[in-house]
Specification:
The structure holds two protein chains of two kinds.
Chain A lengths: L1 H26 L6 H6 L5 H11 L5 H13 L13 H36 L4 H15 L2 H15 L15 H36 L1 H8 L4 H38 L5 H10 L3 H29 L1 H5 L4
Helix pairs in contact in A: 1-12, 5-6, 5-8, 5-10, 5-12, 6-8, 7-8, 7-10, 8-10, 9-10, 10-11, 10-12, 11-12
Chain B lengths: L2 H5 L3 E12 L2 E13 L4 E5 L6 H8 L7 E10 L2 E2 L5 H10 L1 E5 L2 H4 L6 H10 L5 H14 L5 H5 L8 H12 L6 E5 L7 H18 L2 E5 L3 H7 L2 E6 L2 E7 H6 L4 H9 L40 H5 L4 E2 L5 E4 L6 H6 L14 E14 L2 E14 L3 E5 L6 H9 L9 E4 L2 E2 L9 H6 E4 L13 H13 L3 H14 L16 H13 L5 E5 L7 H18 L2 E5 L3 H7 L2 E6 L2 E7 H6 L4 H9 L49 E4 L2 E3 L5 H12 L1
Parallel strand pairs in B: 3-8, 3-9, 6-7, 7-8, 15-20, 15-21, 18-19, 19-20
Antiparallel strand pairs in B: 1-2, 1-4, 4-5, 9-10, 10-12, 11-12, 13-14, 13-16, 16-17, 21-22, 22-24, 23-24
Helix pairs in contact in B: 5-6, 5-8, 6-8, 8-9, 17-18, 17-19, 19-20
Chain lengths: ~325, ~675
């Protein structure tokens, strides 16, 4: 188990390193000169050159990359080119904003989707089952920006139930905050409900048809006991890995939702950074998302190994 | 048990009809099944796939799949009508009076719960407290002869061997001291020696508990060893019923006669006779059938059979047969056996193995799966490989095929040319020369292609044939494997198992192979289909002069096809010789135990050799003769000290044993008396 964890974390670090290379390379594909971008089209060429020299953006790419990595190794995320603010501060703020949104969305989605999926499987073929299957398919097939726009137009603009901008006033109490965040959360729930519900449903159906469930029924156990003890644990193992992967995606997927609802989160910050060629901000932000993804899948693996003895005990079983 | 209960049947099935709802249409599976099992009696249901034997069992305990419906008749357990029971009564019945054990114990145990808790659950449901249930679970495991029950309690199912898993399942099933124990193919997929142990256990427990047993099995030998009475099912009806041994020795229904004549039994070999087959094929579920369900395939059938339901006749005491033509069954029984396949004089040596070993590395350990194997195979000859799982049969076949490379030092020669270890390093000729037929033809056939394109591809890849030449050859192969022209345009999923295996055989023969490895070629097939495939393999061998390496757990099949037999144990050859010699004896003690373990449809010899324990791990092999830990004839002081060499004990008969052959002959002769 310990060896497995160490291997996973080492693998994760390698992945993160690759991620920084890719982000760095990609962001340099975007045409334009950093100094020019910051100072605007009318600034004299000398100022632009001077700025580039100061930022180090006149140096060859690999030198820039190595300098960046050296800074990261010291725990220094650098300064934003655009706003001259510390990247750590910028990302820190918006990370918490995004995390709040993502966690709230997950908190609603996971229980809702798991319960709906399990119930649909138990009542397989019923009206409820068919509705769940259709709704979840439709929900997860639509991209976030479509669902988000739809929600704004209906609940926000036409019915005016919720505020169109997801920006609670400063110092608002939790309930008010929730009120402001309701629509973006809804948009996320609609998308992620589908994946998780379908997975839970498929898992329960497979477990219900499994031989060990037949054994349990033939033992004369009550149906409730059969389902709690024998069906659910085996059924939800695959769901857990889906939830973990989705948590990672969710963080990336916040982008569209944050833009549409004008919410100051990590996604929106990164879009701005990419537009401004704000490399320090961009690469740090992507790295943070990568770390979140890594931690989520790691947690899922640990959880699965707790539930599945075969994984937990591994070779020494 | 009170006096009244004793008179009530443990299970009574009355005119049971079951249908499956397939896309809104009810398709009948059981067409009026009736039988009774008395308390303490063991009753076997036999028949080929789709005959409804498992459906009967599941209907009896009301555990049909969602689309299965009881459309008529009823089942009574201990006098109580199960078909009319409410859910709670049904649950109590399952908890306290009936139990079931099925095929594949690994699947019937919950993978995420410890074995002990699963067994304890069966006691808790009867009202035992937590501690009490645990205690009784340990006892139950001891009762099924699990020595270290305490330790097994703490294990997860995947940590136990198949035999141990099945014991745990049986322990659970016996928790409630059931009146009726239903065993659905309980030993299918287990090794012969493990099968023998499980069957022995069932017999002992039956004596101890007095439970009635309903055994469902396609293996007639298993039924003969275990059951008092047997019902033979065909297409949803019982066609013949009687005392197990009598039915198998003296069948009266044309189907039972045909089924038994399909089996390679009593040492049948391809050089002596072709196997009989039953004309036609098993009816598909839901097809409308004539009054006598076997009419389509029966050579005795008359117009009456189509329209008039045969009634129960009793041509023998304790026998019930449903047939209009009992007086003519003698014609079938007396029908001459079809001519032999014809002796093939073995030609030159095609394949030569010298000191072939295979070592795997597993978690830092060396696993010696194959140790110093020397073998020869001649043109047109069949070599049968025999041994329990883990004996190295498949490893040997894979080394020959080049699926994995044998260890350095050993030599594999094809036509005197040394072969590279991996097939990818071998010349195209050598690759084409060695082909394989799998147990499951599905894995060998591309599902999205028609039979024609599958065979054409094999012809162009293996034989380099295209155009007209390929088409001619394709016609020839089609003819050889007895497929009709219309089959060529079908896809594998539209074919039955037997037809698929024919395509796979055609595929293997496309490139004129020198050697064909047949890995359990008929294990997934029904008996009547198996006979046709075995005949086909024998015919092809005669016509093409191909050599076969046959791997099968069914010793009847191995005996039928093989000219020579090699017996493997823990990767070592224990005995090699002519098939007739190896089967007739004197045997190596391991071969003797294997032969004795396999339940025979012809009945078992009075004294059986029972092997103790399981095959030792190949990581930690026993000292001396690797078989000494389980050998009933081991000589103390000798067998654990040194490994005997493989030597020729009589002409053409090699054996690896410290006991001299005359001594073995004397020992084995006296046991049989």
């Amino acid at each position: 188990m310990l060896r497995f964890l160490i291997r996973r974390i080492a693998l994760g670090l390698v992945t993160l390193l690759l991620l920084t290379v890719i982000v760095f390379a990609l962001s340099n594909v975007i045409p334009g000169d950093v100094g020019r971008q910051i100072l605007g089209p009318f600034a004299p060429q000398e100022s632009v050159d001077e700025l580039n020299q100061r930022l180090g953006t006149d140096q060859p790419l690999y030198t820039q990359y190595l300098n960046r990595m050296a800074d990261y190794a010291r725990g220094d995320l650098g300064e934003s080119y655009a706003s001259r603010e510390s990247v750590a501060n910028l990302i820190g703020e918006s990370f918490w904003a995004s995390a709040k949104l993502a966690l709230l969305a997950l908190l609603v989605t996971i229980p809702l989707a798991v319960i709906a999926g399990v119930y649909a499987a138990l009542k397989r073929g019923s009206i409820f089952d068919r509705v769940i299957v259709t709704v979840s398919l439709a929900g997860s097939s639509l991209p976030e920006f479509v669902t988000a726009t739809f929600i704004i137009v209906t609940l926000g603009v036409s019915l005016s139930i919720f505020p169109v901008l997801a920006r609670p006033p400063d110092g608002a109490d939790p309930l008010t905050q929730l009120y402001y965040l309701a629509m973006p959360i809804m948009a996320l729930v609609i998308v992620y409900f589908g994946y998780i519900a379908r997975m839970a449903r498929a898992g329960v159906i497979a477990a219900l048809e499994a031989d060990y469930t037949r054994t349990a029924v033939m033992k004369g156990l009550k149906r409730g006991v059969v389902i709690r003890r024998h069906v659910l644990r085996n059924a939800l193992l695959p769901t857990i890995s889906v939830v973990a992967t989705q948590t990672g995606y969710l963080f990336g997927g916040l982008l569209a939702v944050e833009l549409i609802f004008n919410y100051n989160g990590l996604g929106r910050l990164l879009v701005t950074a990419a537009r401004d060629k704000d490399l320090p901000l961009l690469s740090a932000g992507v790295l943070v998302i990568g770390i979140v993804y890594m931690i989520a899948t790691l947690l899922a693996d640990i959880l699965i190994s707790i539930l599945n003895p075969r994984v937990r005990l591994g070779e020494d079983g | 048990m009170s006096a009244t209960e004793q008179r009530t049947a443990a299970l009574k099935v009355e005119d049971l009809e079951v249908a499956y709802d397939v896309r809104g249409v009810l398709r009948p599976v059981l067409r009026g099944v009736s039988f009774e099992i008395q308390p303490g009696e063991a009753y076997g249901l036999v028949g080929e796939s789709g005959c409804g034997k498992s459906t009967t069992a599941f209907a009896a305990v009301r555990y049909l799949p969602g689309n299965g419906h009881i459309t008529g008749g009823r089942t009574l357990i201990g006098g109580d009508d199960v078909t009319a029971m409410g859910d709670e009564a049904l649950r109590e019945l399952r908890a306290s009076r009936i139990s079931m054990v099925y095929q594949d114990p690994g699947q019937s145990l919950n993978p995420t719960i410890k074995v002990g808790r699963q067994v304890a659950e069966a006691f808790a449901v009867l009202g035992a407290s937590k501690d009490e249930a645990r205690e009784r679970a340990v006892e139950a495991l001891r009762r099924v002869r699990i020595a270290d029950a305490e330790r097994v309690m703490e294990r997860y199912p995947y940590q136990l061997s198949g035999g141990m898993q099945q014991r745990a399942v049986i322990a659970m099933a016996l928790a409630c001291d059931p009146q009726l124990l239903i065993l659905d193919e309980p030993t299918t997929g287990l090794d012969a020696t493990v099968e023998a142990e499980v069957l022995d256990l069932v017999a002992t427990l039956r004596d101890e508990t007095g439970a009635a047993i309903l055994l469902i099995a396609h293996n007639l030998g298993v039924v003969r060893r275990t059951c008092d009475r047997v019902g033979v099912m065909y297409a949803g009806r019982i066609v013949e019923e009687g005392i197990a041994g009598e039915v198998f020795d003296d069948p009266q229904h044309p189907y039972t006669v045909g089924l038994l004549r399909c089996l390679p039994r009593r040492g049948a070999a391809k050089s002596e006779r072709r196997l009989d087959t039953i004309p036609g094929s098993l009816p598909l579920i839901g097809t409308p059938l004539p009054a006598c369900v076997f009419e389509d395939r029966c050579t005795l059938a008359t117009a009456e059979c189509r329209t008039v339901l045969p009634t129960a006749a009793h041509p023998r005491p304790d026998r019930t047969v449903f047939c209009h033509h009992l007086d003519r069954v003698g014609e079938l029984v007396a029908a001459p056996v079809t001519a032999a396949v014809g002796e093939v004089a073995p030609g030159d040596v095609v394949l030569q193995l010298e000191d072939v070993s295979k070592t795997f590395r597993q978690g830092g350990h060396e696993v010696r799966a194959l140790v110093g194997v020397d073998l020869e195979l001649r043109a047109g000859e069949t070599l049968g490989l025999v041994g329990e799982s883990g004996s190295g049969k498949t490893t040997l076949a894979k080394a020959i095929l080049g699926i994995h490379a044998a260890d350095q030092g050993g030599v594999i020669r094809l036509d005197r040319e040394t072969l590279a270890g991996l097939t990818t390093q071998r010349p195209a000729d050598a690759r084409r020369a060695i082909q394989i037929i799998f147990q499951n033809p599905d894995s060998a056939l591309n599902r999205s292609k028609t039979v024609r394109s599958i065979l054409s591809r094999a012809l162009s890849k293996l034989a380099g044939l295209t155009g007209q030449a390929a088409e001619d050859r394709l016609e020839k192969i089609r003819d050889e494997v007895v497929l009709s022209p219309r089959h060529l345009d079908l896809k594998p999923r539209q074919l039955s198992g037997g037809l698929k295996q024919r395509v796979a055989i055609g595929n293997a023969f496309a490139g004129d192979p020198r050697i064909v490895v047949c890995d359990e070629p008929t294990s997934a097939l029904d008996v009547s289909v198996q006979a046709a495939i075995l005949n086909l393999l024998a015919d092809l061998q005669r016509d093409e002069q191909a050599s076969y390496i046959v791997i099968s757990h069914d010793l009847g099949v191995v005996r039928y096809l093989s000219d020579r037999i090699a017996v493997l144990y823990l990767g070592r050859l224990m005995e090699v010789g002519d098939a007739a010699t190896v089967f007739a004896g004197p045997h190596h003690p391991y071969t003797e135990a294997l032969l004795s373990a396999v339940p025979s449809v012809d009945g078992d010899p009075p004294a059986r050799i029972r092997l103790e324990g399981e095959v030792p791990s190949a990581i930690d092999v026993p000292s001396g003769c690797v078989f000494h830990t389980r050998c009933p004839r081991a000589i103390e002081g000798t067998c654990e000290a040194s490994e005997p060499p493989l030597v020729e004990v009589e002409t053409g008969h090699m054996m690896r044993c410290h006991i001299p052959i005359d001594e073995l002959r004397r020992l084995q002769g006296s046991d049989a008396d």
